[in-house]
Amino acid sequence: FGCPSEADVNSENLQKQLSELDEDDLCYEFRRERFTVHRTHLYFLHYEYEPASDNTDVTLVAQLSMDRLQMLEAICKHWEGPISLALYLSDAEAQQFLRYAQGSEVLMSRHNVAYHIVYKEGQFYPVNLLRNVAMKHVGTPYMFLSDIDFLPMYGLYEYLRKSVIQLDLANTKKAMIVPAFETLRYRLSFPKSKAELLSMLDMGTLFTFRYHVWTKGHAPTNFAKWRTATTPYRVEWEADFEPYVVVRRDCPEYDRRFVGFGWNKVAHIMELDAQEYEFIVLPNAYMIHMPHAPSFDITKFRSNKQYRICLKTLKEEFQQDMSRRYGFAALKYLTAENN
């Protein structure tokens, strides 16, 4: 029913931006996605949490869809701190999720996990919009920007809170990097210590994350140095770097133009670098990626040439926006790309 309502400036702007898009543009569907408004149900289940009074508290931030639901209990067992999740679901799936959560002792015993449902709309997975929704509703001074298919090491929550003080995150612009590893085994006895993790690396039960397919994404973390590091060390930004980081709550949002697969985290890290964040690797932190079937979007990216062309176009436009926003400092992103 059309109910008469006050003209909303935001929706008028939206309409204007939408009407300026060229429908004949081969990447029209991608561009349109940025302006799609999703129904959102914040705090879908009961949430109750008082951040620690010492101002070191950290919330784990992630997003997911129905096919990654089974990761939730495992993450809750590995991370006792607060969690902010954005779930991309249809109305029917939201009901399924409700039944799933209510039937899980692990999830029901936790009141410090915030579930925000973003209802499905459009044909792409709005990965960065979901991350922004989860980030916006973080109630602690710091957040650990993670992904749902990673298990943090046991005790990471406490370790990060200590590192926040040690590295004076409150008064400096830093992004603390949690080194990422992966296993190809569905049943993994999770390493209880860095020493155990290193021996699993040597045995080939674990690898540095994306080592086989996309080394550039995590190469600057400098895993060779991490093996023997006992103190945090600084690393420099390089092209395609996409580490998992702990930052203050006031860090920039993710860029919504990146949907589905590709460049969604790279663009965010690039913006942190443009804003002169220092990247500091934590010597005793790690997280492990658990194996799963490939997502619908990566399959689309691999099989559809137009998808790859549009991603490249969006990437170039993002870099131009960066040079407009950050001026001379952002030139290095264009040259890094060309090299």
Give an overview in words.
Strands 1-4-3-2-5-11-7-12-10 form a nine-stranded mixed β-sheet. The protein has a four-stranded mixed β-sheet with strand order 6-13-8-9. The chain contains 13 helices and 13 strands. The protein has one domain: Alpha-Beta Complex (Spore Coat Polysaccharide Biosynthesis Protein SpsA, Chain A). The chain is an alpha/beta fold. The protein is globular, with a radius of gyration of 20 Å. The model has no long low-confidence stretch (mean pLDDT 89). Helix content is 38%, strand content 17%.
Low-confidence stretches: none
Order of strands across the main sheet = 1-4-3-2-5-11-7-12-10
CATH architecture: Alpha-Beta Complex
Beta percentage is 15-25%
* Termini separation: 55 Å
Topology-level CATH name: Spore Coat Polysaccharide Biosynthesis Protein SpsA, Chain A
What structural category characterises the helix and strand content? alpha/beta
Tell me the Rg in angstroms: 20 Å
Number of helical regions: 13
What is the overall pLDDT average?
89
Pfam family, one: Glyco_transf_49
Main location: membrane
InterPro entries: Xyl/GlcA_transferase
Subcellular location: Membrane
Please name the defining characteristics of this protein.
alpha/beta, 9-stranded mixed sheet, globular, 339 residues, 4-stranded mixed sheet, Spore Coat Polysaccharide Biosynthesis Protein SpsA, Chain A
